[in-house]
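Trying the structure run again after the queue cleared.
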Amino acid sequence: MTDYDAVFASAIAELRAEGRYRTFVELDRHDAEFPHASRMPGPWTDESGAPQDTVVWCSNDYLGMGEHPVVLDAMERAVRSAGAGSGGTRNISGTSTDHVELERELASLHAKDAALVFTSGYVANEAALSSLASGLPGCVVLSDERNHASIIAGIQQSQAEKRIFSHSDMADLERQLNVIVPERPKIIVFEAIYSMDGDVAPVEAICDLAERYGALTYLDEVHAVGMYGETGAGIAEREGQAARVDVIQGSLAKGFGVMGGYIAASSPLIDFVRSTARGFIFTTSLPPALAAAATASVRYVRRYGTDDRQLLQQRAERLTTLLVEAGLPAMSSESHIVPILVGDPVLCERVSRALMFEHGVYVQPINYPTVPRGTERLRLCPTPKHTERHVDELVAALNDVWSRLVMEGPLETPIQALGSVGRA
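Done. Tokens:
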């Protein structure tokens, strides 16, 4: 007889030995105090006692909209009006006025005919891509090698032919497009910002190839919506390419600070996904209060977010500059995401814990399979809510921990282009 718990315990022991065991840091966020939060003691941190003040440096609430009064007021009004849950799937009593208004706002944001809201960005990618690729007979999906796990899952579920092109390599993408029979449907799938490295995709060049070879473009703007473009519509808007992208996918949980994911595209495409995507059809819809809060956030960021977008970039630039000046291994980044290469999973965990316990700084270690082995890192996410003092204190804390735990002096490990994990 199989001892199931023994199998699981053995697997966990291996994860611990490799430095890949995942721990949860319990935070008690307080309204209007972000990036400060109370870190709660408990079994995941092997400690007891009183909560500790912590400055959060790894939140995806990139603009701090999760605590904005406009968003909170909209959510409170909606929950008092519509209740806590949606009551069902979108097809069975789970479509409220708040859902419809949110989809109209998102379609307007991206200047598309229509939009469709999902329960998360992961579900949006998985459901939309599996539906689109399987719904186009003979479809070939061309996917950037560093695309997110949700994109990989959607392509795999579609059972369509897939081709992986080298990261942002237009020559490799064109070579692969060139050998596909012109009549076959094709979808090029890529991300605007690759969140573990902070680099930006060549959107215009990909659109050029898509038009030349008759392919649909599917752009994941999850880490860009809210933060880039004149109205926060993302990298495609900033680069003047939004009209050329067929499907824009985004998140409501990062730049907009709430929860959910979506796609925006032509009306026939949205209607097709709405009618065929299992991850949409068979999932209870977002609570109306979340939809109302997301609508309020999108509207605010579109109209008044320019200053916060500029301040976000200033904080990221200042942080990167100080890290480089201190001899710390800040990886090259074209965006607001600032990664620091560690290169070892156990050491990455030790550095993270030292920052938290000794300096009250929370930065989650990023290990395999999120990034390739040997490229373990700390991923810093400055926001407009982080002050210059926060930045200075973070760099000082990193300097202290680095000099004691890593080596005397700067790390000199080269950053290698190893590619991402699980991209088969």
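Residues 192 and 221 are 5 Å apart (CA to CA). Worth checking whether this holds up in the mutant runs.
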